[in-house]
Amino acid sequence: MTPPPADPRTLARMTGILAARPLPARSQAFDLLLAGTLCMTAGFLSLAQVRLAGVLAFGMLVPLIWRRTRPELTFFAVSSVAVLQWLSDTQLMAGNVGLLIALYAISVYGEVRYSRIALGVGGLGVLMATARYYGNSDWRQQVTMMVALGALVFGVWAIGERRRTRGLYVAQLEERAAQLERDRDRESKLAVSNERTRIAREIHDVVAHGLSIMIVQADGGLYAADASPEQAKKALATIGDTGRASLTEMRKMLGLLKQDEQLELDPDQPRPQPGVSSLPELVENVRQAGLAVDYEVTGRPRDLPALLGLTAYRIVQEGLTNTLKHAGPGARTSVRLDFGREMLTVVVSDDGRGAGVAPSSDPGHGLVGMRQRASISGGTVSAGPKPGGGYEVIARLPYHLTGGEQ
Fold it and tell me: Membrane spanning segments where (predicted)?
């Protein structure tokens, strides 16, 4: 597979990543062994040819020990020795293989700009070598040697450049895979955090609603204890039933919070998911708490996605809880669900005296919580006093943003 070309900024960044990686001990040992082997063979062959040639050969071969860690410095050192060879008119020798290895090293491990400079230096060396060592030859032989040496230099550089590009491509894939893994972990933690926040809001709704009913019943039972013992007993029974139901639901949600930090959001795991079908039971419980509630459904009822049904249920529950807290004695409340063509409209209104305090009594979980729930489903919530007295909450929840019409 041929790696796609990368832009210069990506090449520079990935080259920096590769250069920053520590060199394995095995690679260091290989470079030392390579330089030693070349010194023992090509170096001593050159030394047998001419003593100066042997010295120059060792000067070209010993720097290869640092060909990966210091590729630019290695190429500069080897090239400098080659210039000394040219100035001293020393013939080509076996140690000149160090030039090709240094050129290959800088094309693989060096920066891109230095690699291209090294190719230019190699081309200049071909011209200098042809002029020095084949200047007295026939022009055809000069051209042949120039082409041959140029092809050798360019071929070594091209092989190294290809290996560098492939290495950068692999490093880029590794970095991308690592980034995707980090993103996955971050999204997983965020999902767990969101789930815990949702459960905390559910616990608030359960506790606030249950306690509101229990407080109203307790006050009513205390008032009727002497005059109407039967009514007081009924209030106490309602308190017990409400407390047990709220405790059962809260235990389910607390069980979710007790899971470990690596909580996996299993779609099959049970969740407390009341919906629109649970609203009549909710309204009946509030009625038993002493609040007069009218419940009305208009339009053609339909099956709703779980999230939309839960949102509608919690908005009604929060609205009735606020009415219990703030509307005052004798207040009447109405809950209306309008199944329109494109959205479900939920209206909770009362004629009590608590219009001024309901929206701001609990800004963290009251109206703000309703709006957060509605926004998740793509809907809106508006709330405020009604003309003539009372308070009204209106939620508009579209169908199509939550799965469409069933």
Answer: 32-59, 93-110, 117-135, 141-159
